[in-house]
Amino acid sequence: MKELIKKDEYGVFADGKETARADSLFVAKFFEKEHKNVLRDIESLIDPKSGLSEEFNRLNFEPTSYVDSWNRKQKAYAITRDGFTMLVMGYTGAKANRFKELYIKRFNEMENHIKALSEAKSDFPLLTDNIKLLHENPQPYHYSNECNLVNKIALGMTAKEFRELNKIPKGETIRPYLTESQLYLLNELQRADITFLRLFPDYKDRKNYLEQYKDRLLSEQHLLTA
């Protein structure tokens, strides 16, 4: 299954349709169950006799696979928040409840991450439109320079340098690989730059104001987490 955002340590990820999911293999590990038993529980739920609708099962339990330690292809499921809730409803005890709470938290965080990615995607055309307004005959380097400016202030490096550091394929967007705090900072600076392009045509002025804005954002984050 295509992953927009890669699996975290709990197997929670975003699929190619921007839906948060959990890998059944990881769910089995954290709930201290054999994967075959988790598969049995899922297949009991998706059985027509279970009472769940075919649509619910199709949307919330996506068949997938993994390769085991003997290099054999094995069945697994990618489970949505609703599917996860239905699956673990019968898992009881203090330890199970702790893991239910943890997964709910991770689903919330992943959904916020997906939302931030979607917002960044929708904001980017505004940035390119304002670059066109600033330059009478914009060249490719005008766009790359502006992106590098925002990335270097937000991340301390260009997107190319981030790809090389994290072994991300050339040309692939770096945003799914950013932490939530990195993505937040990058999105906020990108939004600010959309305005700053109109207010401060000079590159050095924009850089100065973006750096000041970054300091303000970091200070606000510190106050919120203090």
Count of alpha and pi helical runs: 9
- How are the strands of the largest sheet arranged? 1-2-3-5-4
Q: Multimeric state of these chains?
A: single chain
SSE succession: EEEHHHEEHHHHHH
List segments where confidence is low: pLDDT < 50 over at least 5 consecutive residues: none
* Percent of sequence in beta strands: 5-15%
State the distance separating the first and last CA atoms.
39 Å
Shape: elongated
Q: What share of residues is helical?
A: 55-70%
Radius of gyration: 22 Å
Biggest β-sheet strands, sense, barrel: 5 strands, antiparallel
Content-based structural category? alpha+beta
Which tags fit this structure?
alpha+beta, 226 residues, elongated, 5-stranded antiparallel beta sheet
SSE blueprint and pairings:
Layout lengths: L2 E3 L6 E4 L4 E4 H7 L4 H12 L7 H7 E7 L5 E8 H8 L5 H41 L5 H16 L3 H8 L13 H20 L3 H23 L1
Antiparallel strand pairs: 1-2, 2-3, 3-5, 4-5
Helix pairs in contact: 1-2, 5-8, 6-8, 6-9, 8-9
Would you give an account of this structure?
- The structure is a single chain.
- By secondary structure, this protein is of the alpha+beta class.
- The protein is 63% helix and 12% strand.
- The chain has 9 helices and 5 strands.
- The protein has helices at residues 24-30, 35-46, 54-60, 81-88, 94-134, 140-155, 159-166, 180-199, 203-225, and strands spanning 3-5, 12-15, 20-23, 61-67, 73-80.
- It has a 5-stranded antiparallel beta sheet.
- Helix 5 (94-134) runs parallel beside helix 8 (180-199) and helix 6 (140-155) packs parallel to helix 9 (203-225).
- The longest helix is centred in the middle third of the chain and has 41 residues, at 94-134.
- It is elongated and about 65 Å long.
- The model has no long low-confidence stretch (mean pLDDT 91).
